[in-house]
Amino acid sequence: MNWKRGLGIGLMFIGLFVVVTNAFITGAVIGFKPENYLGLFGVVLFMIGVFLTTVGNVVSDLEEEAELGAKIAVYEDRKVSNQNEYRRYFMRDPFGFFSFQDICLGDFRKVYNEVIRRDQNLLERAREVYGKRLLSISQTRKPNAKTAEEFLKILYDGKLPKEEMPLITREEREEIKNAFSVGWNTDFNGAQRGILRKYDLWYGNLAGGHLAIYPTNNENLRVITSSTPSDVRTGRNTASQIIRLLKKFREKTGKTKRS
């Protein structure tokens, strides 16, 4: 029980006690003497208690949903052939929306097609509950990212919900920052060149001791930095510029890291 709901219930009992001990009954009418403010105070306490209890219930429901949502997970049954993905991929369903136990991709598709997609309210609720968590899993570099994508494709009728996917993930940001914050001398080091290749970026030397970084198929979008950075701030600034470059390029082309 959260503190709002507990306090609300307590105030309701106190308010009800104050009302009962200070009220008088005439026929079917309950009232208070004009000079008796304790009775009115009891009514106020009771109403505050009702409000806090209602808010507490809402907060508790949201916390419970968030806790259950974090338990949504996907995994592979490696005993099953790779060719049989509908029996190889599984999802843990703590809400029991699709199943009261772990459900394979094939059964997930069956429930979705026969029940969920036929009811707009159920469809919206299913996407609200499962979509965000599955998207979060699919955007990681963990082996189960592809498994999450397969469930997402069914949940969104064959298409990944790209509009909900960030142009650049937190993991990508950190990877770029870590690689370039150390700086370089005349040329990027092996790790930095590897990061550029990974994100389909290239670079070239410019006059005046500068380097230009750009997407491999679009030299018009570019980041220019010094080939001999004077301090670590140059590396950090370059990392930030590369992140902005990637976001701009992906926004323009509609590509994300998994597109």
Global outline: flat
Say how many strands there are: 8
Structural class by SSE content: alpha+beta
Q: What level of helicity do the residues show?
A: 40-55%
Separation, N- and C-terminal Cα atoms:
44 Å
Describe this structure in words.
The protein folds into 3 domains: about 70 residues; about 90 residues, no CATH class; about 80 residues. The chain has 9 helices and 8 strands. The longest helix has about 35 residues. About 0% of the residues have low confidence. The strands form 3 sheets. The chain has a 3-stranded antiparallel beta sheet. It is α+β, with helices and mostly antiparallel strands and about 260 residues long.
How would you summarize what this structure contains?
With 259 residues, the chain is an alpha+beta fold. The protein folds into three domains: 3-69; 73-164, no CATH class; 178-253. The chain has nine helices and eight strands.
